[in-house]
Amino acid sequence: MLLIPCPHCGLREESEFTYGGPCRDLPALDGQSDAGTWSQAFHMGKNPRGPLRELWYHSSGCEAWIEVTRDTASHEIIPGGQT
Amino acid sequence: MRRLPAGGLIDRSQTLHFTFDGEMMTGHPGDTLASALLAGGRHLVARSLKYHRPRGIMSAGLEEPSAMVTVRDETGSTPNLKVTEVPLREGLQVSSQNALPSLEKDRAAALGLMGKTISAGFYYKTFMWPQGAWHQRFARLIRQAAGHGKVDPSPDPALYDKRRKSCDVLVIGSGPAGLSAAVTAAQSGATVILMEQDHVLGGSLLSSDATLQGLSAQDWAEDAEEALRVLSNVTVMPRTLAFGQYDHGLVQAVETLPEGSSCQAVFWKIRAKRILLAAGAIERPLVFPGNDRPGIMLAGAVRSYIRRFAVAPGRSAVVAVADPQERADTVAALREAGISIAADLPAGARLLATQGKRHLTGLAWRDAQGRKQRTPCDLLAMSAGWMPTAHLFAQMGERLSFSDQTQSLLPPETDGPLRPIGGARAVLDSADCIADGKAAAHQAMAELEMHKHLNLSRPSPAPASAEVFAAGKGKAFVDFQNDVTRDDVALAQREGYRDVELTKRYTTLGMGSDQGKTSWTNGVLEIAALSGREAAEIGHTTYRPPYSPVSLGALVGAGTGMQMTPILRTPFHSGFEKLGCVFQTSGDWLYSRYFPQPGETMAQAIEREARAVRSSLGCVDMSTLGKIDVQGSDALEFLSRLYCNNFAAIKPGRLRYALMLREDGYVFDDGTIACLGAEHFLVTATTANAGSVWRHMQKCAQVEWPELDVSLTDVSDHWASLAIAGPNARKLLEALGPDFEASRQAFPFAAVREGQLDGLPARVFSVSFSGELSYEINVPAGFAEALLARVMERGAEWNITPYGLETLDVLRIEKGHLSVGTEIDGRRTPGDLGMGGMVSKKKDFLGRALLQRPGLQAEGREQLVGLVPEDGSTIIPYAAHLSDSELDAKGCAATIGHLTAAIESPSLGHPIALGFLRDGRNRIGDVLWAHSPVAGASVRVRVTAPCFYDPEGERLHG
Ligand SMILES: [Zn+2]
Asked: How many domains does chain A have?
């Protein structure tokens, strides 16, 4: 059970959040991208052992979607996270 | 009686009564069940798991492998409690377990029933070969004979709770290291929680005769406790077992409250910046033939029973203790208790066998010169050394490493939040523990920037004794709880199960509820000796919470029965109660199910309600739909990206049915988009998806398209929504006196009007789930009862009939309307649902690209169809599978689809069903089989379009 830093609410218990999966850079909705491009962006995540940028939704809090960089091996939250 | 006349931490002025297997026994406050049993001269308290061997009390702590009993008190009975962990209370009824039929005369043991059959790997071998042996020969026999206590099936009347707390420093354990660390941290200003599993503080000090800083060990502990009790930044928690360490400094613990408390136990979640694990060490048994007999105890336990509990656990003792200092201490303790020393085994002695049927009567051993000795005795105090209790440390995945120096698994240095101190890192001497606790606490304080760095040096782990004992051949137990012998470990090595994880599973070594607390290190040493490998190479298996068993009641807390989840009630709830509504749970909601009239069955009520809606007028609660207010200059663009159909031309006052896809192209949800103004929309989500659609919209607005000017508000709970439906719905709407025109021309289908309705502020949506002319009247939630009263009163003219979820479902199935969870099940494209034509080709939207994947566009996918019985009358079994063929002789048939809904339609007068059928739209008119092996029915069904009632939709307009 993690402690997750919400920029609005401070360090909060994981049970207040809903996991939103890894951050994904989805193609723009401009009618140009095909299923292959989307599939690459949507399905083919890196799944690293180490730092991972991911989204958390503070559902039982301020309802903000926040980005958190978490080390998937140690569960360490990396402040200001970079991967 | 074995109670000593003086000394010990017991209150002799009070006598407590309890029974063991029906026999009345007594003890005093301060006793555990174990000490009271021993004081009454009872060692034999259990029969072992596999061999039904007599077992006694080996330890004085949580590590006890054998002495498990069932304890009955006023709240019911609890199985598998260790006698060493239960504080004695008045009136406890204690019974032994796994005895056939009784402890003293155990049939299974007498026959040697299990001994011949169950060696290591027995289960693996019997499951594999010969075929059927397990089921035919062994299963019933073993299930009867093996195992522990029985669960009490009656409801637990005790109350439990859950609480949270945080602190700078959490100290687990209150021996010399823990007390010293807690005092140091607390006096430096840290907020400190000190947890102790026992009901008194002191740990090993309670049975020590050491002199510490000029005080007796007990006085030192008392002074330290006093120093903590006066500080407001310290919470002392006795009777609290810290059973698991989790991420980011979380420790979970169960506090058992004292007798007479309203609550039995509290489940604690503690967040700490630093955790000092002062859980001490567990004594390692000697592995020698017959080492499991009642009367054979760990040396530390013997000292504890004598000094802390004032019990003499025997009259004539053999001492087999490896460490010379501990050996001397044990001899001293035995003498204090007036127990004669039958033999004090010298180093190098070989332990050959023990005698005694239900209790130890003698030991056969050989001295270093090879001379065989037989020593009569009724107590054997044994010790091979000490094993650090670093379980909580290892639970987070860090490996312990075997140290040749200490002959035990040691925690490595760490910069993580949890630091083992004292015995938990093999520092054994009390004065060393005090120094270690102080140094570790100062280190933690410095890291938390609450104290300057002092750089105190920490004592080294105590080396194991160079003196060891040898053992003869015979049944020597390594794991007492699971009856695993040295020979079993050897067999596993011979048969190739050499990895520790394999040895563990093959032999069940360390797999009992004690998780191998007394056995694992001996297991490692046995494997090392047998395989010729270094013990350090053997490693260890995974440590998992809980450290020691905790009751499920405590983990569940107060969340049982009606407290399990919050119950949501709609604003019409009390109004419906007055109308005789029967409610049912639907997700978190308690929702109206049907409204029976006196003497009516549910089926009769549903039929009456459905006919009323089709022929005149009904009303139904729609408040559970998600309602999301969308505003902003980009509101329309935002919605256009979220929903797959095109509604670019929507005008204020109108609404559209809309379909939302997931990113991967499958249908997510359906609902309506009502245009309240050029930059103001109200969208609905289905009841089941109200939360997930809201979350999804928030994500799109905040993360995916932050550039859009849109603001979202969840107004689901702000509005009470009552749909009036039926041919007379418009007449009722007009009778309610709207301040807007309600004629067919002025207020057509798929529109929204805002205004006053008989003095109530209202939004009215002309939408229909039933297929009849229908208006969903929304009023602020506080006006729900007023609206319902007016609707029932004015609607009486048309015999308005309230209806619930059952009729709602019947009406929508007749119309072929979709329901989330049944038709919208996460695997359907718009095309599968017959809505392929709705998907816009003029715009991009979430899910467009991935919906184009070939598999989602393939011909012949399962498609939504209707089904009717070919004979026009046979009921179609719910959840049946569709097939082109009859069931074959084996009861099988190839499936080509399945049903999602099946009812007897009141409006059509015959059974109907909805289902998904491979290539369904091309099969309309075909006759198939609907098989339900569950219902034992197979019915011939004809495929139809999914809409059975008013397919042209003319009734919507009134
Ligand atoms: Zn927040």
From this structure: 1
Q: Which of B246, B704, B852 sits opposite A1 (nearest CB)?
A: B246
Based on the fold, state whether residues B407 and B263 are members of the same structural domain.
yes
Q: State how far the Cα of B923 lies from the Cα of B911, in Å rounded to an integer.
A: 20
Q: CA-to-CA distance for A53 and B335, rounded, in angstroms?
A: 66
pLDDT higher than 50, residue A83: no
Picking from B48, B83, B107, the residue at the C-terminal end of a domain is B107
Shortest CA distance from B252: residue in chain A: A1
Same domain flag for B615 and B726: yes
Q: Which pLDDT belongs to residue B74?
A: 87
Distance CA B443, CA B421 (A): 12
Choose from A29, A39, A78 for mutation: most chain B CBs within 10 A.
A29
Nearest-Cα residue of chain A relative to residue B269: A1
- Give the whole-number percent of chain B exceeding pLDDT 70: 96
In a domain, B133, yes or no: no
Helices (H), B861-958: none
Q: What is the complex's ipTM, to 2 decimals?
A: 0.97
Asked whether residue B131 carries a pLDDT value surpassing 70, the answer given is no
Q: Return the closest-CA partner of residue B260 out of B75, B15, B85, B31.
A: B75
Domain range for B480? 473-533
**B256 and B167 in a common domain:** yes
Could you tell me which chain A residue has the CA closest to the CA of B854? Answer: A35
Q: Who's near B815: CB < 8 A, 6+ residues apart?
A: B769, B770, B771, B947, B948, B949, B950
Here the CATH number for the domain that contains residue B22 is: 3.10.20.440
In what helix (H) or strand (E) does residue B229 lie, and over which residues does it extend? Answer: helix B217-229
Hey, what's the torsion of the CAs at B856, B861, B866, B868, to 10 degrees?
-170
| pLDDT digit string, tens, across residues B781-839 | 999 999 999 999 999 999 999 999 999 999 999 999 999 999 999 999 999 999 999 99
For chain B, percent of residues with pLDDT exceeding 90: 87
Burial class (CB in 10 A: 0-12, 13-18, 19+), B646: middle
pLDDT band at B883 (very low <50, low <70, confident <90, very high): very high
Residue A71 lies in a domain: yes
Tell me whether residue A62 is in a domain.
Answer: yes
Query: Residues B611, B729: one domain?
Result: yes
- Residues B795 and B734 grouped into a single domain: yes
Residues B954 and B867 in one domain: yes
For B144-191, what is each residue's pLDDT tens digit?
555 678 888 888 889 999 999 999 999 999 999 999 999 999 999 999
- Asked if residue B1 has pLDDT above 70, the reply is no
In a shared domain, residues B558 and B572: no
Provide the percentage of residues in chain A whose pLDDT is more than 70: 96
- Are B235 and B164 members of one domain? yes
Rounded Cα–Cα distance for residues B574 and B583 (Å): 11
Q: CB B850 to CB A63 under 8 A?
A: no
Number of domains observed in the structure of chain B: 6
Q: Give residue B958's pLDDT.
A: 83
Q: What pLDDT, on a 0 to 100 scale, did the predictor assign at position B877?
A: 96
The token pair that represents B403 in the structure block: 């140290």
Residue B497 belongs to some domain of the structure: yes
The pLDDT value given to residue B142: 61
Is residue B87 classed as helix, strand or coil in its secondary structure?
strand
- Residue A30 located in a structural domain: no
Query: Which tens digits make up the pLDDT trace of B684-701?
Result: 999 999 999 999 999 999
User: Residue A47's domain is classified under what CATH number?
Assistant: 3.30.2270.10
Query: Token digits for B314?
Result: 């025997």
In a domain, B242, yes or no: yes
Q: Are B284 and B387 in contact (CB under 8 A)?
A: yes
Q: Do A38 and B704 touch (CB under 8 A)?
A: no
Q: How confident is the model at residue B52 (pLDDT cuts 50, 70, 90)?
A: confident
Neighboring chain B residues of A55 at a CB cutoff of 8 Å: 699, 703
Domain boundary among B750, B782, B809: B809
